[in-house]
Design brief:
Order of helices and strands: HHHHHHHHHHHH
Number of strands: 0
Strand content: under 5%
Number of helices: 12
Helix content: over 70%
Radius of gyration: 17 Å
Structural class: mainly alpha
Shape: globular
Largest sheet: none
């Protein structure tokens, strides 16, 4: 159950480019051991988060996060940054979520992992724009995410996630025309991938 709960959405699972891209490979036997243990723990954290048990998720997560910060293995923290930040975000702890995302960005930068950098930046756009209401900064982060996505020749699934967050940011900022334009692009991506209209697109048009 924990493994199933930690899986990505069906949209992401259908994206072959995203599934193949930017896979973290531990360099030593010790890193492989640590990474295997971390994967199991993160699966449990994600399951607790999905069930709404945010306090339990943080209790399990924070020692792991402290260990990762101490290890300083290039790329390893980037692997789990979005999951950890989501726990804090859903707990209403935006400052802690932002700290984890910043560390994840540095980790991705150290290891040259543009796909992970893009994923972290997308989560950052959501946090800063949708939750904190800092639209100017959210737009800057979105531009950085588009640049990282282009460098990595990233997937339509990631692009759709980014455009969706941008559409919500523009809706909250009061630029409805821009929000509709972005949501129309998301709809086109979903149609090309064989999916229907997203809830975000319907909400933007309705509002």
């Amino acid at each position: 159950l924990e493994v199933v709960e930690s899986l990505p959405s069906l949209d992401s699972c259908s994206d072959a480019d995203r599934l193949r891209g930017d896979i973290y490979v531990p360099a030593t036997s010790e890193e492989r051991r640590v990474y295997a243990e971390l994967e199991l723990t993160v699966a449990r954290v994600n399951a607790l988060r999905s069930a709404g048990h945010y306090g339990e998720a943080r209790t399990l997560m924070e020692p792991v996060l402290a260990e990762l910060e101490g290890l300083r293995v290039p790329g390893m923290l980037a692997e789990f940054a979005t999951s950890f930040a989501s726990v804090y975000t859903q707990s209403g702890l935006s400052r802690e979520a932002e700290r984890v995302l910043e560390q994840g960005l540095w980790s991705a930068e150290e290891s040259g992992r543009d796909t992970r950098r893009t994923e972290i930046l997308i989560e950052y756009v959501f946090l800063v724009g949708n939750l904190k209401g800092d639209f100017r900064r959210a737009r800057w982060l979105a531009k950085a995410a588009h640049a990282a996505l282009e460098r990595s020749e990233g997937s339509d699934s990631l692009l759709g996630d980014l455009l969706t967050h941008e559409a919500v940011v523009e809706t909250l900022a009061g630029d409805t025309d821009r929000a509709i334009e972005l949501s129309e692009r998301v709809l086109e991506l979903r149609k090309d991938a064989g999916f229907g209209q997203s809830d975000t697109h319907a909400s933007v048009i309705g509002n």
